[in-house]
């Protein structure tokens, strides 16, 4: 929960320039959960350099349509790196799926992967290996120490903007010119 006790679920979490952790440098994470027990999200701007969707379908013995090797797989974060998550737009109602907001959900069940493999995916989606996670109060502390800034979720940024431009566009979406950011925290 943020300082006012508000959940940040459904928001973007953007890494500030001073966050040098290679897992999160200039990352944008869609927070799928945020409560007193911690937070969880999917990094939306890191493509796995060696894995594509066809490889995942083959591993799971799911038949797939031609071209599935062109579906990228994202590095969703450094936690649960062997688990598959699908951040997606409508339709919803997949087994094991959860709504993040009215316009985006998160699923990690076989049925959504089978639909993608068969050529009947959600309107927009990201397949990710792993997720980002924070324990109770951890994310709030990192926000206070100027590691992160939050902003509203944008389907355009999450699914349509080029991966290499998502961090910059998410920052611009909250009125920040990334070129002017400092990596030093201050107190007023």
TrEMBL record:
One of its GO terms (cellular component) is cytosol. InterPro entries: AlgH-like (IPR003774). Belongs to the UPF0301 (AlgH) family. This is UPF0301 protein DSCOOX_06200. HAMAP family: UPF0301.
């Amino acid at each position: 929960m943020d300082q006012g006790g508000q959940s940040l679920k459904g928001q973007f979490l953007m890494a500030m320039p001073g966050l040098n952790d290679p897992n999160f440098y200039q990352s944008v994470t869609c927070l799928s959960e945020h409560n007193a027990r911690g937070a969880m999200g999917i990094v939306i701007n890191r493509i796995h350099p060696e894995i594509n969707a066809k490889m995942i379908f083959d591993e799971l013995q799911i038949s797939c349509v031609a071209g599935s090797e062109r579906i990228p797989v994202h590095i969703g974060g450094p936690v649960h790196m062997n688990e598959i998550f699908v951040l997606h737009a409508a339709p919803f109602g997949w087994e094991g799926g959860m709504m993040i907001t009215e316009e985006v959900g998160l699923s990690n069940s076989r049925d959504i992967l089978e639909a993608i493999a068969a050529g009947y995916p959600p309107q927009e989606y990201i397949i990710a290996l792993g997720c980002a996670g924070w324990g109770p109060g951890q994310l709030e502390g990192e926000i206070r120490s100027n590691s992160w800034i939050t902003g509203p979720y944008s389907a355009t940024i999450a699914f349509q903007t080029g991966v290499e431009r998502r961090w910059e566009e998410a920052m611009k979406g909250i009125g920040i010119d990334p070129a002017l950011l400092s990596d030093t925290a201050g107190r007023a």
